[in-house]
Amino acid sequence: MRKFVVGLLTGLLLIVVVVTSSESAPTPAYAPTTYSVPAEVKPVVDRLGITDRTVKIKTDFPCKPGARACFDTAIHFPLTSLRLSEQEQNAVLAHEYMHYVHTKLDDTDRTKYEQLAVGEYNQSELFQKRMKWYVERNILDNDEILAVACTEVSDSILPAELYQYCVKYLPNRLVLPSNIR
Questions:
Q1: Strand order of the sheet with strand 75-76?
Q2: pTM of this prediction?
Q3: Are the C-beta atoms of residues 157 and 124 closer than 8 Å to each other?
């Protein structure tokens, strides 16, 4: 009986120590996962000036037919996209990267930058013509308009606040085509 009581008390003491120590243990700070950029894609990332290493870039291709790249939880930039001209590679990767950035914005910023981009879209026939592919497939949304605004609209046309947002994430916009002037 004495061994039972000693065992029971020892067990209770261990439970108290474990519970107490786990309650007082500091919670580690959140550290985003970092990824290495595939070697084949690194020159494109470097040309764009993208330094964010929390974005996952893969060279697989689970995208819809006709797409040159896509974004879900990662940027899918297939090796076949490396056959494009450098300027097209830059535009495709930058566009998908801006979709990634869009997912990281808080609601207030997302709404603000979407409204600026949509305002520019509504004022520009050339911008609307560029987005026709999305309209015809019923997939035009504010995220697409914002991604195209940051990757294809000329600096001189972008509202100053939207331009600042775009260059924050794409500091080397000079390597992108300015299709919408």
A1: 57-58, 75-76, 70-71
A2: 0.79
A3: yes
pLDDT per residue as tens, the chain (181 positions)? 555 444 444 444 444 444 444 444 444 444 567 888 999 999 999 999 999 989 999 998 888 887 889 999 899 998 888 899 999 999 999 999 999 999 999 999 999 999 999 999 999 999 999 999 999 999 999 999 999 999 999 988 899 999 999 999 999 999 998 776 5
**One-letter amino acid identity for 28?**
P
Token code pair at residue 69 = 């790249």
Looking up tokens 């790249």, which residue turns up? 69
Is residue 162 exposed (0-12), middle (13-18) or buried (19+ Cβ within 10 Å)?
A: buried
